[in-house]
Design a protein that fits this description.
The chain has about 290 residues and is an alpha/beta fold. The chain is built from 11 helices and 13 strands.
């Protein structure tokens, strides 16, 4: 079994739900407390020993490249000003990983975005992470998937239970529970009505795939909205080889919509080691 090191971050979306904030700023660069969303995702990947980062970008996403690049002038200014902690943090972010950037010139779906990394996968297993699905827990979400991949040698999807009124917003899986406690996925339905949903377990933006998934993506025909759907390729994969699901341990924030983004800032802000106590007091004063 080949070592899992590569991870794809699709970041080419336009972020229209956050307009006008995202008119000139990538959604992935919006901050949760003191870090942009994309940094949380990259740090999660690195903690799971996935250190070959492939960013699928588009027009207007240059800020992502700059964020993970070295800014010699900024670092020199921070050092000269004696701001050693800020200097260390800025320097750390710039050097935390080598990143490959690939353009998705047309928005043709998540499957199409993943397929843009085909050249860089080279018949190796790979992960996919959606940065606006922020998952915070004691063990990184990607590490939880990695462990099941290393146990089985097969593809693994991150899952979470969603309430009935949220089922129609997600890809929902059907599954069988195996004797070893793993959930083997048998089908998945994109945004079903409640009555058509096979379960309440939703796919939440964390994936590990065998190389076969990329091969299947090459032949997937465009579906709804003329887009290439990742779930279509996963459904085909599940007919050929086992695909497992992991109920992720952690708190999930749907930071891809304004309400979830605000909740993530509030919760992580209150728990922040530097700002938490002050922030709680400020919130309390406003709520009293």
């Amino acid at each position: 079994m080949k070592t899992l090191r590569k991870i794809i971050f699709p970041t080419a979306g336009m972020g229209t739900r956050f307009l006008p904030a995202t008119k000139a700023t990538p959604k992935e660069m919006l901050t949760i407390v003191d870090r942009p969303l994309i940094q949380y995702g990259v740090e999660e990947a690195l903690a799971a020993k996935m250190d070959q980062i492939i960013m699928i970008t588009g027009r207007g996403k240059r800020a992502i490249e700059d964020h993970f690049d070295i800014s010699a002038e900024l670092e020199a200014n921070l050092k000269q000003a004696g701001k050693s902690e800020l200097y260390k943090e800025v320097s750390r972010v710039a050097r935390m990983a080598e990143v490959i950037y690939v353009r998705q010139k047309e928005a043709l779906g998540l499957g199409h975005a993943v397929l843009r990394a085909d050249h860089w996968i080279n018949d190796e297993p790979f992960a996919v992470s959606l940065a606006d699905e922020l998952i915070v827990g004691a063990k990184p979400a990607m590490q939880q998937l990695r462990e099941v991949y290393e146990q089985t040698g097969h593809s693994v999807l991150g899952l979470m239970q969603v309430p009935e009124d949220q089922v129609s917003k997600y890809g929902i899986v059907d599954y069988v529970a195996e004797d070893n406690g793993l959930l083997r996925l048998t089908d998945m339905v994109e945004k079903p009505s409640l009555k058509d949903a096979p379960s309440h377990l939703a796919i939440v933006g964390r994936y590990v795939f065998t190389p076969r998934l990329m091969e299947l993506l090459r032949d997937v025909k465009p579906g709804k909205g003329n887009e290439i759907q990742l779930t279509d390729a996963i459904a085909l994969l599940a007919k050929e080889e086992p695909v497992y699901g992991v109920l992720l341990d952690g708190e999930r924030f749907d930071a891809g919509n304004p309400a979830g983004f605000l909740v993530a800032n509030a919760v992580l802000g209150m728990n922040h080691h530097l700002y938490g106590e002050e922030f709680k007091q400020i919130l309390k004063a406003h709520l009293d």
